[in-house]
Design a protein that fits this description.
isopeptide bond, two-stranded antiparallel ribbon, 2 domains, 239 residues, zinc, Ubiquitin-like (UB roll), alpha+beta
């Protein structure tokens, strides 16, 4: 067992391939490595390690994608001129703010979830936003987040020891008891190779709009809230 180094291993994690002997050790390794235990179907595999099982897995993955795309193509309401016009206007407004906003084809989960809008009177984005707390395996979805709100204010209801919701605070206890200087907000850099994932570090004191400028956003921003002392494989660009 790679967690306790005492008992004979009985299980192997499908995602990180770590050996464990019991449910307790499985939970320990998930917490220590921020692992969700779900096999990554798109993980990089070198040619030397590529086997028939990898080929079969890729084939089934592509079959699932084909079925999803075919089902989406049958939804005529999603192909209406009005929907396309709104998406074009949203991307155009983002471009003027120096944000490369990209939308996915119909049928993708993020396309279906996205509720981002632009208020023409206020000249302001109201973003659909996802917060990921990997050390606690927690995710929260926010809707209608104004682009002039600072990241610090966005995170207050979650990790602030005083202002956060008691239930959320208990679940994210590892964040609330840590000093604020140890908290980092990261966003994955899009359009990079699968084996070269990098993150941008965001400034909590700046607004959401300022942090998104000059970056590629696919549908909506996903922010990873991590602790400097615990993050392992999340490499910041330039490091």
């Amino acid at each position: 067992c790679e967690s306790c180094s005492k008992e004979e291993a009985k299980y192997r994690c499908p995602r990180c391939m770590k050996y464990s002997c019991s449910l307790l050790c499985v939970k320990k390794h998930k917490l220590a490595l921020s692992c969700n235990g779900v096999r990554d179907k798109t993980a990089f595999v070198s040619v030397n390690e590529f086997t028939d099982l990898n080929l079969l897995s890729d084939y089934r993955f592509l079959e699932d994608v084909g079925r999803t795309a075919d089902a989406a193509a049958r939804l005529s309401t999603m192909h209406s001129p009005t929907t396309k016009k709104l998406l074009y206007a949203l991307r155009n407004k983002a471009r003027r703010c120096d944000i490369d906003l990209r939308t996915l084809p119909v049928g993708f989960t993020k396309r279906r979830e996205n509720s981002t809008t632009f208020n023409c009177l206020e000249k302001k984005f109201y973003w659909h936003l996802k917060l990921v707390f990997p050390h606690c395996h927690a995710e929260y979805t926010l809707k209608g987040v104004p682009d002039d709100k600072t990241l610090a204010d966005i995170l207050k209801p979650y990790i602030d020891p005083v202002e956060s919701d008691p239930v959320v605070c208990q679940r994210l206890k590892i964040y609330t008891v840590s000093p604020q200087s140890d908290v980092q907000i990261l966003m994955k850099i899009e359009n990079r190779k699968q084996n070269s994932v990098r993150y941008n570090e965001l400034d909590a004191s700046k607004s959401l709009l300022d942090n998104l400028k000059g970056k590629i956003i696919i549908e909506y921003p996903t922010l990873f809230v991590v602790l400097k002392t615990l993050k392992k494989d999340m490499v910041i660009l330039g490091q």
